[in-house]
Structures are given as C-alpha cells and as structure tokens.
Predict the 3D structure of the following.
Amino acid sequence: MSNEIMSELRKDYIYNLMIKGEREDGRKFDEYRDIKIDTNVIEKAEGSARVRLGDTLLVVGVKIQTGTPFPDTPDKGVIITNLELLPLASPMFESGPPREDAVELARVVDRGIRESESIDLSKLCITAGEKVWMVFIDVHVLDDGGNIMDAASLGAIAALMTGKLPAKRFDVGEDSPIPMRDVPVAVTAVEIGGTIMLDPSLNEQSIAGTKLTVISNQDGGISGMQKSGVNPLTTEQINYIVDAAIEKAKELRQKFLEI
Amino acid sequence: MICVYEIIKNEEEKRKFMVKPEKLIENGIRLDGRKPDELRPIKIKVGVLNRADGSCYFEFGANKVIAAVYGPREVHPRHMQKSTSAVVRYKYNMASFSVEERKRPGPDRRSIEVSKVSREALEPVIFQEYFPRSAIDIFVEVLQADAGTRTAGINAASIALADAGIPMKSLVSACAVGKVDDTLVLDLNKDEDNYGQADMPIAMTPDGKITLLQMDGHLSSDEFKEGLEMAKKGCLEIAQLQRAALLEKYSSKIEGESNE
C-alpha cells in the first residue's frame, strides 16, 4: 500500500506469523500498541497534545483566533484541519505542499470532529455574521511508526478537550474551555490476506492491501468512515471491522479521553 | 433596540442562506418524487470524445460528468513508472461553473482526496500487470454537480476504461446511501445531501467486492449495515445500465450499421 521499502523475507515472515494467528510484536489482532497522550505540551497554543502510539509520534497544536464567518453559516465558528507529514518523520516523506496521503489523513481527522458535532460550533459565534472563533487544528507527524490516522485523531480530540478559547487576548470576555459535546475516536483496521487487524504497525501497514478507518461517538454511532488502499473488502469484513471499531473506540475513550 | 435589530438581521440572513425544506420525505416519497430505495435517472453515452482512447458521458440525476481514458501510454514524468505494472492515474476536476457559486478552478483538498479514493476504487479491477512501464490516465470532468459527483465519476470512468479496451476483471459501479429525516435513502440529491444526517458513497464490483467506502454524518451500526445492503442493490442496478450502454455501442458495429 505504501512505498515503504521492506525485504521480501520480512513480508513473508509477517504473513506466515499471521497465518499462525500472531503478529510481529506479539499483539493480538484486535490489540493496540501502547498509547501515551500528554496534553498542554505547547504553551503558546490554545490546546495541544503529544501522542505516542507505538513507534508513531506526533504533536497536535490547536490555535484559536477570531475571524469572519463563512457567508452560508454566519452564526457558526470555523474548524480548519491540516496535517503535515514532515520529512523528519520518514525517509518516504518529502518537503513541499501536502500530497494526497496527507490531504486524506487531514480530511478524515476533520470529518470525525466535524460530523460528530463534537465542537458546538454555534457556541463559537461571537457576533453573528461578523465575528466568530476560528479553530485551527494542525497535526505535525514527527515519527512514522504506522497508523498515523488513529494517533492524529486521538491527538486532535485530546488537544481540543483540554484547550481554551482565548477570549481575554481578543478582548471578548473571559477565557473558557472549548465547547465540546462528543468524543469521536478513530479506529483503523487493515486487511492482510483475509485477516483483519487493528492498529497496524508500519510493517503491517506496508504489506496491507487496504485500510478501513471507522470513527465512532460516545453513543456508539458512526460519524465517519474511510476506506483507503486498492484491495476490495467484502461486506462481512466491513461489518466485522465496524463492530470491532465501535467496541475498541469505547475502550480507548474510557482509558485516555475521560475528562 | 439594537438587540432587536440584530435578531431581525440575523433571521433575515438565516433565511437568505438556509432554505431547508420542512420535510425531505413525505408519506414515504422524497422531494423529487422518488421512493427511498430509488436511483435518480441515469443517462449514459459511450465513446463521446474523438481523441481519447475511451470516453463516457454520464448523467446521474442533475449530475453531468464526462470521463476520458488515455493509455496504456508512456509515463511522464519518467520516474513515476513502475517496472512490473502500469500506473493508474485519476484526475477528478470540477468545472468552475458546475456549482451554484463559482468554484475557484484547479485542484483543492477535496478534489485531491476524491481523485485518490476514486483511483483506488478502480485499480483492483484493472489488469495493471499487463502493461509494465506504462500509464493509464483517467480524467473526470464534472460539468454540473448535484450531490454524488464522485460516484458518477467512477461509473463513467469504469465505462471509459472498458471503451478504451483496457483489460478489466469487471466493471465498477458506485452510488451513495444516506439518511434523511431518520430514513435511509439511496442516491442522495443536493437537498438531501445538504440537510441530511449521513452520506455514504460506495463503489463495488458486480460480485459484491467493495472498492470504495466513505461515510460522514451519523449512523448507528445497524443503519450502516442496512445501508450497505441498499447500496449493493443500487450498484447492481447501475452495473446493468453500464453493461447495456457498452453493449449498445459495440453490438451495433458488429451488425454492420456503422457508427462513423
């Protein structure tokens, strides 16, 4: 799926392990790597989080400022999500404008936050039609160890949950928390030779034919999905992933995103 | 007084921009007269462009898209070529006049993503290994947009590939399922897309392998599963139309009634 360079021997090894029901790093098929989330790691940002998911490391910074609303939503705030695959994170990443994989990741992170209505956009309105809060979510990937998608999504929501609206700095009242009302969590699965596994490592991701990301909410509903990669999936595989993802999202939310 | 004025102004502005119909479904019938599991009318024309190796004009309700396929041909730039298979490239582009408010021309983040997932929706059916060091270029131009342009584009591109004589395992068909007024509906139109609760574009092969799946909005897992089945039926319906359109073009030639 990716252009990552990997020896044929390593591919065979992972494949053969999988047939035996095992993974390279000893995890079960539905087990995540260790997750560590630290919030408020960047003082200058209004919200921030550093996420480590196995070998993957990224920092999410949320900057918030006032601006004019879009004409079709004069009484709603604005969310803008961007994701940078920095060249320091992998020999496969190059500098320059975001390429399609970075654009896709950013748009799926954005979709989870927007479609779950996790931020109450109407509470980001200061003066309708004139002034609203604009929330910029920037994800900087520092080390690519696979499954950037889930790490980015965890980081974004953690940064938002611990962030604040800098009302004092913009002279529009007292600082307050970002108005959050849901906690969407993305869970990504890959399919390798008919087997489904969650939270793919870099090696697993490189040999997988397809990824499927499912973003679910507190009520167990789904608010976003994205299939990525060239291999097709069967209905059974998709239904299995959806059920597993909703279950896993609950667990991750409880463990890492309890306020 | 200022407050009252502000409120009135806001209400006016709201009315100006939001014309949400009160009900999107009444007595089981949608605003455009369709039943929940009914597709919009489809019109297909195969081989509409002279210079392209394969092409297709596809109307899906008010969507009008045109797809062209060039290739297999030399890869430019050279470094993109693969030594063991063809590279498939897909460019989705929206004409600036295709939407209500003029769209700034050129690629944006949305069209980059749509191009990527659409390419991945078609790649599994193309025998890429037959054409090492070559490129198969697919261009999709949206002339008029009315919700569901990516699925219309995939449907058109799939036919254009066949028209270009590219060896394929099967056709790919695509349509969306969504939720409006708490009801699952097939193939959303613009109003249903704007004011609906969920939108889920899906592409699949006639034997049920899913090659594109995206979703935004809000669905329970049961609704999702039901929606997936609904999309499957829609895609099969489209597959038949695609097949018929191709047969129409190529069977008339065999009978000696030249199209030229």
